[in-house]
Structure formats: C-alpha cells, structure tokens
Design a protein that fits this description.
The structure holds two protein chains of two kinds.
Chain A lengths: L2 H11 L1 H36 L5 E5 L3 H9 L9 E2 H5 L4 H8 L3 H24 L3 H19 L12 E13 L2 E6 L2 H4 L2 E2 L5 E2 L20 E4 L1 H6 L7 E2 L2 E2 L11 E6 L10 E5 H5 L36 E2 L1 E6 L1 H13 L3 E4 L1 H55 L4 H42 L24 H25 L3 H4 L3
Parallel strand pairs in A: 4-11, 7-10
Antiparallel strand pairs in A: 1-13, 1-14, 2-12, 3-4, 3-9, 3-13, 5-6, 7-11, 8-10
Chain B lengths: L1 E11 L5 E12 L4 E5 L6 H9 L6 E6 L2 E2 L5 H11 E4 L11 H13 L4 H10 L15 H13 L5 E5 L7 H18 L2 E5 L3 H4 L4 E4 L3 H12 L1
Parallel strand pairs in B: 3-8, 3-9, 6-7, 7-8
Antiparallel strand pairs in B: 1-2, 1-4, 4-5
Helix pairs in contact in B: 2-3, 3-4, 3-5, 4-5, 5-6
Classes of the chains: A alpha+beta, B alpha/beta.
Chain lengths: ~500, ~230
C-alpha cells in the first residue's frame, strides 16, 4: 500500500467534494485550452495573412496602409488607380505587344511611321534613283528607333524579377462585399496558407474564371465562401455588381457564377472575383480620355460583348498589382516604382505586421493574462477544497501519525491528493477542451479558414524564453499543473504536517 | 523492557496558566507483562500512553525502552520507533473509513516497514474472528467488529508493547468481554507487553497487575519489582 493508494482512497472517501474540485479544475483547464485554441486561431490567421503568396503590392501613390488595406483585405476605399502600363511592366514582351496593339499610341505611332516613311522616301527619291533601297534603309532605321522608343517592343522593365503579377480592379460591390476585377491567375498562380503552399480550391463542380469563355464571354465570377453562404449564391447564379458602394446603382452587366471558393481563412472568402475584361466593360469603368479614340474609328459599332473588341490600353487602369517577385530584387523594384510620380510599391506583410501588432498583440497579451488567471483561480479552488476538508480530516491524519506515519509522509499524502485532483481535473479539462475544439471546427473553419482537429495543440507562445517558445503551451500545462498542485497543496499539506496528534486523536 | 523515571508533563492552558498532568517518579513494565492502569478521569492516563508512544514529548524525566531513552529521539525517530515497536488501540477505534478492514490492518505495516504483508494481515483478521469481513469497510461493521479490526491493526507490526486506551468503553457489554479476551490472549500469544487503560473494574479485575496512576508509591514499588 503506497502513498498514491492512500491519497486516492482519501479522494474517493470525499467523492462529492473531490469531484466538484476536480470539475472546477477541469473547467479551468477547458477554459485554458479554449483560450489557447482561440489564441492559436488568431495566430494561424495572422500567419496565414502574413504570407500572402505575393510580396509587393503596387498601387497609386498615397498611404501605404490604405493601399494594403484595400488590396489585401478589400477594406477602406481605394486611393486611386494606376495606368495599365504599370501592369504591363511586369509582363512579357509578347503579352505587352498583344495588349498595346489595341492602344491609341500604337495606332498613332503606326500612322506617324507611315507618314515619315513616305516623306523620307519621296525626299530622297527625288535626288537619288535608288529610292527603293533607301526606303528600305529608312524603314529599318525608323523601326529600330521605334523598338527603342516604344514599349511594345520590349519586355516589361520588371519582368525579369517577377514570378507572377495579378492585377486588381476595385470599385464595385456585391452587397457589402467587394467585387474584384482580376485575371484567372488570381486562383491559378496565387496560393495561400502559412507557407503559401495551399492552392485555392473550388467547391463542387465550380471552376475558375477564364480569360474568355465561349459560354459566358468575359462575364464570369468566382465567389468567396463567406459571400456564397451569406448571400446564398450558387453556381450558375447571375450577379450584378453595384457601382461605387454597397448602395450604388447596380450595373446592367450580369456575371455568371462559375465557381465558389472553399473556405480559406483569407480575405478572399469575403469577395467576388470577376474577369477584368468584364470589369472594364461595365458602364463607366473605362477611363475617360480628353481626345476620345481619335484613331479608333475601326472599333466603333462594336458591342462590349464582342470578343474581338479591345479596350485601348489608355482607357484601362488597375487599382493594385499583387506581385510575386524575387525578394533580392524587390527593394530595387520598390525604389524604382516609388521614384515615379504615379505609383508606389509597398511590402504588404510589413504593413500587416505593423497593423496587427497594434491590435493582435494586446489581444494575445489579454488572452495570456486570462489563461494565467484561470489557472490561478482553478488552483485556488483546489486549495480551498482540500484546506476545508482538513478540519474533518485532522482525526484521520492523527491516526496515520499514531500508526507511525511521519510528518513528511502525511505532507506527501495531502500534496499527492492535490496533485491527483489537479492532474486528473486537468486531463478531463484537456479532453473536454479538445472535444469542444473538434466540435467547433466546422464553424471556425468556415469563419477563419483555420482547420482544427481534436489533436491540434495550440501553437507556441511568443515569449522570449528559449525552448519554451518552441513548445505548445498545452505541453507546458502538465508541469504547470504539477507545480500548481504542489504550490496550492502546500498550505493544506503543511497544515497536515503540523497536526497536533494528541489533540486531534480521538481517544 | 519499559522503564520510566521522574516523568513530568504539564499542559499550558489557553490563559497561560500551567496544569500539571503527570508526575511519575517510577513506572516499569516487563516484557510480555500485562498492566492495567486505572485512575480518575483527567488524571493523565491517556497522556502517559501518548508520552510512551512518543506522540507527545515529556517535559522532563526519562522513558527507557530496552535501554533506549525515547525522550532523546527526534520526532521522526519517535514516529518510526512507535510504528515498529508499539501497537495502539483506541477507545474510538480510529479506523480509516476509506479503507477496508484488511487495508486498515495493512496501513500500520506500510508506515513501519514501507511494505505490507497481506497474508499476515489476513491471518490477524482471522485471529480476531473477522475472516469473512476483510473486504468490508468500517461503516459496514458493528462497533465490536471495528474494535477487533483495530486490535488486529495494532498487532500488525508484531509490536513489543501494546497500548490500549479504554478499548471497551464504546462497546456494548456483550462484546466487551470478547475484546478483553482478544487483547489478553493476543498479547500472550505473541508475547507482547500490554498497558491497558480502563475505568471498568470488571475489565481491570481480569488482570493480575492493576496500577492506580495516582498511587505513585505503588507504581514505584511495582517498578522496583520489575527491575529486580
């Protein structure tokens, strides 16, 4: 018969009060586990937002935070738009050439080129008989000049450093949610998650938007999971973005929902993504110009639904560019862009960290303080319970002493009781806590995108203590409970230790 | 075996006044001897047993157990010495309610030797007539049965001295005699010295040596006889 048996029998003897004490501890640990889980969800959300899958955002000059807020979180109002050319500076020469073909400048240059060639040939041709040969020389000279001067004959300035770039066109709403004009790259190239390795998945038979689909043309939409749930959007539904604000007039242009995102825990859950071409083709979305389309007579009569209609580059704008580029070159690109007058480049992760540090860090501290307080209160309940039982147990302690138990032995028995109540209560609380976490997992996942399982432990705490900041705080609960038990068990155990045997012993 | 000389014990009352309880010039018990202590209530009989057991310290004097001066031992050593050499039977039995009869007997072993002998504990229960009650808890037993368990527990470490403090006071008359017989016979059987405190002359008269605590001359004379 060892001390553990004696201590556990003593607990069993006072089953009701022991159970209540254990329950109190269990509830305490449940709360701790729950608080740590909330902490973990906050942390994971933080991490998920801290690795966005892109490292630079380019937008109009203005507040860095505002650009980050409206391009990463779809919050706040966009500052302004930047010319489409900024987007093209991150693209290949082929892409640029294709895009510039429909531009006014391309046509203007083409006309200038033809005029200059005619003039040069006719002038030279009058004095030299070999005008035809000279015409060829002049043509080549002018072509070289154009190559160096005109943007469609070269790759984008930043293309060499860019892995991918995703344009965003903001300004419209679907209910309270942002409508984002973008390209299929948004979900084809961009990944999310703490390591930016999780590809975006679409529910059911949904698919990504296409550059142009035979079925819906440029007018397709992918809807975030929260939007779909909140607005009861299903595949095949038609949506009409409203202009400028939630209360703005609805555009006549309809977009067909071709995909609904699985929950990701990112701001993309709360947005609607439409084809950028479709975005431009909504009324009032093309940039108005002073000398509207002086060379675009050939495009007059086209409808916006025509696939061969090319909105000139000059009439296109983007609100922001999400750029994934080699970090080594990002500083240089940032400087180059910021030196210009129209656009700025920001590091969104830096801005988010600054922002979240202001709000999340105090919440984390509050959660940690709460956790510690809960532990202390639970410990006190054990202390009170055991201490209160000491009066009725003094006789038993005296009998044990009379039977030869040393004072340290009875101290050990009472401490062990405290330990059993703490650890058993803690274990029950751990199971209940993790059970609740597992039960709430679908809800949490739908709201935050953070997946929780029964065996998911809270992430390490951001404390500046080596080793401890590597471990889940739940692992620390075990020694924590033991220390707590020893500490709170001290007073009743010392009371047992000091028991006056002669006085307490029944005759 | 047990020899007491000039033992003095005083209690301090709440007001600060002192109350002399014991003043015994001489007292002795031989090995295997059975002694009944009688005396007025509050006369210090229980205190004397506590002093011998080392539960309370004496103010002055000497308690020799086989020549070992118990008063010089530390609290820890007195606890250990009591566990291994003495058995104690209380008036109120003092069985632990969370444990079965067998476990109550084994508890005494655990503190004395650090290990228990289940077989011997069961033998003792058989000896006190509780062969079939070893798995029962005290609350499931009559007072007589509880006191039998207490006797078995007191014998568990094969003590050399058994201290019994009014062991029949809470027991109905029908059971009193069987308890006295049990204690008497067990002590004879295991050659254990006995100091039994009682107020009941019917109990006392069954023993050959009856000492009145207030009669210090008688105590001294008996002590001389034992020592001689």
């Amino acid at each position: 018969m060892n001390l553990f048996t004696i201590a556990s029998r003593s607990i069993r003897q006072r089953l009701l009060s022991s159970s209540l004490t254990m329950l109190s501890m269990a509830m305490g640990v449940t709360l701790v586990v729950a608080v740590l889980a909330i902490f973990g969800v906050v942390q994971k959300s933080f991490d998920a937002n801290a690795t966005l899958g892109y490292n630079v955002v380019v937008g109009a000059k203005g507040g860095k935070l505002q650009l980050t807020l409206n391009s990463v979180f779809y919050l706040s109002q966009p500052i302004e738009n930047v010319p489409y050319e900024y987007y093209l500076e991150f693209k290949t020469q082929e892409f640029r050439f294709q895009e510039y073909q429909g531009s006014y400048s391309f046509k203007a240059i083409g006309q200038q080129h033809a005029t200059r060639k005619t003039l040069a040939v006719s002038t030279l041709g009058a004095s030299v008989p070999l005008g035809g040969i000279l015409g060829l020389v002049v043509d080549t000279t002018l072509q070289n000049e154009m190559d160096s001067m005109f943007p469609w004959n070269r790759p984008g300035k930043y293309k060499a450093y860019t892995n991918f770039v995703i344009p965003l066109c903001l300004g419209d709403y679907f209910g309270p949610y942002r409508v984002v004009g973008t390209t299929p790259d948004m979900f084809d190239l961009l990944h999310y998650g703490s390591s930016a390795e999780d590809p975006y998945a679409l529910q059911g038979n949904g698919r990504n938007i296409e550059n142009y689909s035979e079925q819906y043309g440029y007018f397709e939409a992918v809807v975030g999971s929260v939007v779909a749930r909140d607005r009861n959007v299903k595949l095949g539904d038609k949506i009409n973005p409203s202009h400028g604000s939630e209360e703005g007039d609805s555009h006549a242009t309809e977009f067909t929902v071709v995909g609904i995102l699985e929950p990701t825990g990112t701001p993309n859950d709360r947005a609607v993504f439409i084809n950028m071409e479709g975005f431009y083709r909504m009324s009032d979305h093309a940039k108005p110009l002073e000398n509207e389309d002086p060379y675009g007579a050939d495009q007059q009569g086209h409808k916006i639904t025509d696939s061969d209609y090319r909105l000139p580059v000059e009439k296109r704008e983007v609100t922001a560019l999400l750029v994934n580029m080699d970090p080594i070159f990002s500083v240089g690109v940032e400087n180059a862009i910021n030196e210009g007058s129209a656009a700025q480049a920001v590091y969104p992760v830096l801005e988010i960290r600054r922002l979240l540090d202001v709000f999340v860090t105090p919440v984390k501290v509050l959660l940690l303080v709460l956790t510690v307080m809960i532990c202390v209160v639970s410990g006190l309940s054990i202390l009170i319970s055991i201490y209160n039982s000491m009066n009725e147990r003094r006789g038993e302690i005296a009998v044990l002493r009379a039977l030869g138990a040393r004072r340290l032995t009875v101290y050990g028995i009472v401490s062990l009781e405290s330990l059993i109540l703490s650890v058993a209560g803690g274990l029950i609380g751990f199971l209940i806590g993790h059970g609740l976490i597992a039960m709430s997992s679908p809800f949490v996942e739908s709201r935050t995108g953070v997946r929780l399982g029964f065996f998911d432990f809270a992430p390490p705490l951001p404390i500046a203590i080596p080793y401890l900041n590597q471990l889940s705080p739940e692992i620390l609960l075990i020694p924590g409970l033991v220390i707590l038990a020893v500490v709170v068990g001290f007073i009743p155990a010392y009371s047992a230790y000091r028991t006056d045997v002669a006085k307490s012993l029944g005759k | 075996m047990l020899s007491i000389a000039n033992l003095k014990k005083t209690f301090t009352q709440p007001g600060g006044a002192t109350l002399p309880i014991l003043d015994i010039p001489k007292f002795a018990v031989a090995a295997g001897e059975q002694v009944v202590l009688i005396g007025r209530s509050g006369g210090g009989k229980t205190t004397l047993l506590h002093n011998i057991a080392g539960i309370t310290k004496i103010d002055s004097g000497e308690i020799l157990f086989d020549g070992l001066p118990l008063q010089t031992l530390s609290q820890e050593m007195r606890d250990r010495f009591r566990a291994t050499n003495m058995g104690y039977v209380f008036q109120t039995f003092n069985l632990l309610p969370a444990f079965t009869a067998l476990e109550n007997v084994m508890l005494g072993m655990a503190f004395a030797k650090g290990k228990t002998d289940r077989g011997f504990a069961q033998t003792l229960l058989n000896r006190v007539g509780l062969k079939d009650r070893s798995g029962h808890r005290p609350t499931m037993m009559s007072v007589g049965e509880q006191q039998r368990v207490a006797v078995a527990r007191a014998l568990a470490n094969r003590p050399r001295l058994l201290l019994a403090d009014e062991p029949t006071a809470n027991i109905d008359p029908a059971n009193q005699q069987s308890i006295v017989d049990l204690i008497k016979e067990s002590c004879e059987e295991f050659n254990i010295a006995l100091i039994l405190v009682t107020h009941t002359m019917e109990v006392a008269n069954q023993f050959s040596r009856i000492d009145r605590l207030e009669d210090i001359n008688q105590l001294a004379a008996r002590a001389e006889e034992v020592i001689a």
